Every structure is written in C-alpha cells, then in structure tokens.
Amino acid sequence: MLQQQLPKQDGSIETVKIFTIEELKKATNDFNETTIIGRRGFGTIYKGVLTGNKIVAIKKSLVVDQSQIEQFVNEVIVLSQINHRNVVRLLGCCLETEVPLLVYEFITNGTLFHHIHEVGQAFSIPWKIRLRIAKETAGALSYLHSAASTPIIHRDVK
C-alpha cells in the first residue's frame, strides 16, 4: 500500500526507500545499545551506517496499534514530499517489524538545542549567528506550515 502511494521522481525513481529489517540491523549492529543517540517519548533513535558508509538516524517508535500504523503510512507519504535545506530529510522506512522504522539523514554536530544550552560550552554562539539561525528556522517552519503540499505542524523543533 505504501509503495504505491509514494511520490516518484522523474516518474520512475522513488524518493523514499523501503529498507529491509536486515539492512537496518546490519547498520545498527542489531540495534545495539551503543548505537542509541537519543530517547524520546515516542521511542528510540539509533545511529546507523548503511552499505556504502552512509550514516543515518533510525527512529524506532514504541509499540503501536493498527490505527497508528495507518497514521504512520500517511506521515511517510507527507514527509517524502518535504524538500527544504533546513529540514532533516526522510530517506526511507522499514515496514517489516511490528513497529515501523523511519530512516533519516544523519545530521552531524548535534542539535541546535545542545549547542545553545550545553553547560560548560567552550564558546558562545554570537548574536549575529543566532539571528541567522532564528531566521532560517522560521523559514523552515513557514515552509512546513504553508508551502508543503500538506501543512505540517512540527511540535518538536530542536
């Protein structure tokens, strides 16, 4: 169902890849604890290395029911259409597990929140750069709210 609804690039290439669970297990050393880079209310985020040394972030949600899986499918369809330089790109998903997995591009250097609020930070971000970051963040949110084909309200900007 999901593959049929995903948008195509140039009419032939899917913009979102459907990963196998084996690919993601290999990328995360079987979802080893050492590959965990974050835990949130929705689940766990793993850092993985795909074949070809492509580094990714893999979100594994908490156990969901059938209605949440349908919502997940709809979200993948919407997220697959997002293309903005300041929004983390969805690379694909895995549907072979009880809990669907999302695969995103990995952003190095941590989150903006970490850089602004980290205690003992060796340097402070200058106000000129902070203002540029705020402007670019506002532009990305504006894109998600109004320019995307389906409006998206993020609720977890980092």
TrEMBL record:
EC number: 2.7.11.1
Major enzyme class: transferase
Biological source species: Davidia involucrata
Any one annotated GO CC term: plasma membrane
Membrane topology label: Single-pass type I membrane protein
InterPro entries, sorted: Kinase-like_dom_sf (IPR011009), Prot_kinase_dom (IPR000719), Ser-Thr/Tyr_kinase_cat_dom (IPR001245), Tyr_kinase_cat_dom (IPR020635), WAK-like (IPR045274)
Statement: the UniProt record of this protein carries the keyword Transmembrane: yes
A Pfam family it matches: PK_Tyr_Ser-Thr
Catalysed reaction equations from the record: L-threonyl-[protein] + ATP = O-phospho-L-threonyl-[protein] + ADP + H(+); L-seryl-[protein] + ATP = O-phospho-L-seryl-[protein] + ADP + H(+)
SMART domains noted in UniProt: TyrKc (SM00219)
Protein name in UniProt: Putative wall-associated receptor kinase 2-like
Compartment(s): Membrane
